Amino acid sequence: MLFTSYEFILFLCIVIGLYYTIPKRFQWKLLLVASxxxxxxxxxxxxxxxxxxxxxxYLVGVxxxxxxKQQKLYLxxxxxxxxxxxxxxxxxxxxxxxWRWLLLCLIFNLxxxxxxxxxxxxxxNINYIFTLFKMNELSFVNxxxxxxxxxxxxxxxxxxxxxxxxxxxPEKNIGKLALFVSFFPQLxxxxxxxxxxxxxxxxxEHHFDAKNFAFGFQRVLWGYFxxxxxxxxIVAAVxxxxxxxxTYDGIFVLVGMIYYAIQLYADFTGGIDITxxxxxxxxxxxxxxxxxxxxxxxxxEYWRRWHITMGTWFRDYIFYPLSVCKPMLNISKSSxxxxxxxxxxxxxxxxxxxxxxFTTGLWHGASWNFIVWGLLNGVVILVSQExxxxxxxxxxxxxxxxxxxxxxxxxxxxxxxxSSLRILDCYRDVGVxxxxxxxxFTKLNIxxxxxxxxxxxxxxxxxxxxxxxxxxxxxxxxxxxxSGSVREKIAGKPVIIRxxxxxxxxxxxxxxxxxxxGFDSNQFIYNQF
Length: 529
Known about the structure:
The structure is a single chain. The protein is about 70% helix and about 0% strand. By secondary structure, it is an all-alpha fold. Among the domains are: about 30-190, no CATH class; about 210-290 and about 430-520, no CATH class. Helix 3 runs parallel beside helix 5, helix 11 (about 310-325) packs across helix 13 and helix 12 (about 325-340) crosses helix 13. It is globular and about 90 Å long.
């Protein structure tokens, strides 16, 4: 049941209607039922996967909570009889038990993700090695990849890690935990919410708030505008270019990577806008996932603004723990002795960064193009960090850092750099991607932009007009957002202007949305993850 389908719109209307009609104490239970009904339409077998993850996470969470209570009770009862050494030894034993339960939960649930998502990828690589030695190849297995498994697995693993760390108490109501994991607006593409953030409003009783509902509805429409008017229209040209690399090389690779950047941004942020808007209509607050990433002046800043909840998840649960774990500290210590202080202190950062970006690439897809894409991001970030002293000297000599021209250069440079790395996502083949990237410099023919070739990519003049206007509107909204909420600004205008904006946005989707004859509303790109 896609967000863009009529079935989903009907489903959403029924859920919202019931949500504000039934007794308030049943609201979260209605959302739980609705979430499982929504997920059922992706395949009934998928319910087994998500249910197993919910139950296993719940049981381990309860066990961790009981161990914590056991420790507090024991130390209280034996406060006078235990020596400091005995107390320390007892706490250490409980700590070991807690970490064992945590490790069991992580291995079990991440193992499910690994099996269904990466088994055939592993077999393909093993078969490649077997062919070199003329050995019999392994058969691929027919496994169903549950919709949104990467997102809900990361949500639950973040939850159980936080419980183990003592950040908050484990949820004792399995139904509430199940709702946190399966909350339908964010189930298929995030954001990857933290339990302590989402639970603040997820289980509360909500009365209908006209302003909040209107703001949420406006955001939903804005998401549909980006998805249907821009992303699903420009995708035709992206597919034409990337599916025919032998025909479209040189300047078309540059065109394709820019088109794909527009498509990906409009598609992903459009889906997130719909998610956050639906949640707001229900009175629920969901974490923002984007902060105008294409205004970034460096790749590091870009990743602080793009898919924010994914980036913070990898930072908090992989980068920080890995960079301060005992083996890493030992590596750092020995490196300082062997290579000196400056290099030694960098090695944990290098290793942790590369590990995070390798994992990030692998999370995006079971394919080498995603792994290489992730590693290249990590390398570019590390190289950029190493050149920071050189940048500082440049800015000391040339006072251009705060000029509009230099800032614009940084924004364009970052956009082109990120778009170039995304070529690996466009072509889904490492060799083809590098060959196409090279062709931009060896077969560049600017004249092909003006000889009518762009009109042979599945888009006509009217399509380009709609896309250009849509992109201008997106950029304008982003610029306005720098000084505050656009919806708040619109709300402060006279009634006629408020309704004019709403009507214009609504009919733009109806009239210019890429659906109907000749179009097929595409699945959101991040659904595959």
